[in-house]
Amino acid sequence: MATVFSPSAVFSNSTATATTPRPPQSPAAPKTNLSIPLTKQPLATLVATAAAATILTTVPPSLADSPSATNYQLYYGTAASAANYGGYGGNSSKQASAEYVYDVPEGWKERLVSKVEKGTNGTDSEFYNPKKRTEKEYLTYLAGFRQLAPREVILNNLALSDVDLQDLIASADSVTSEEKKDENGQVYYVYEIDGVAAHSLIAVTCAKNKLYAHFVKAPTPEWNRDKDMLKHVHESFRTVGSY
C-alpha cells in the first residue's frame, strides 16, 4: 500500500519524523517604494530641498502690510496779514520770514488760501492728502493776543469760527486737553478730540502778539490707519523767532 504524505510533512525537517501544522499567517503589509531614499541624498540636496519648501509654503507679506517710513517736508509759515498775502509761491523763500513751522507728509498737496478766507477766519496755510481730502492739517492765527486764556475758553473760541470743529466737539466721545512747554519754556495747549466719525489734534500757542492754532484732522478710518504719521505732524508744529 502506498504511503500518504500530508502537506506539512513535505516542508518538514529531513531529520524529523513528524511536523506540527503551522497556523495561517496574515500577509505582510506592503512597503512604500521611494524613488530617491532621503537617507541617501547628499547634504547639499537636503538643504536645497528644505529651502525650496520654505519658499513655496511661506506667503509673502503684502506691501500694504509693511509700509515704508513716511518722509516729510518742513513748511515755513509767515502768518502775513490779508493785505500783504498773495497766496501763491513755494515755501523755500519764506524761511527767512517764517513765524512757525510744521512737517508735511510726502505726497500731500497744498491748498491755496484766499485773501477773503484769510481775513475772515485767519487760515494761513493748509495741506491735505489727495487720496482723502478730509485728512489734512492747517494753521489759523489771530492777532492781538499777548498770552493764552484758560484752555476751555480757547477751544470754545476756536470753534466759533470753525463749523466743522463745532460739530466734532458736539458729537465727540471724549475731549482731552493738557498744557505743555517746549525747550524754551513756551506754553502750548494741546487738545485731542475723539469723535465717532473723525479725530482731531490741535496745538495752540501765543507768540509775537498772535495766537497760532495748528489743526490735524482725519476721518476715523484714516486716523486708525495713519495714527502715527498724524501724531508726528501734530507734534512737529512750533513757532520760530523771538517770542
Automatic annotation (TrEMBL):
This is PsbP C-terminal domain-containing protein. Signal peptide: none annotated. Residues 13-34 are annotated as: Disordered. Pfam families: PsbP. Residues 99-238 form the PsbP C-terminal domain. It comes from Ficus carica (Common fig). GO terms for cellular component: extrinsic component of membrane; photosystem II oxygen evolving complex. SUPFAM superfamilies: Mog1p/PsbP-like. PANTHER family: PTHR31407, THYLAKOID LUMENAL 19 KDA PROTEIN, CHLOROPLASTIC. GO terms for biological process: photosynthesis. One of its GO terms (molecular function) is calcium ion binding. InterPro entries: Mog1/PsbP_a/b/a-sand, PsbP_C.
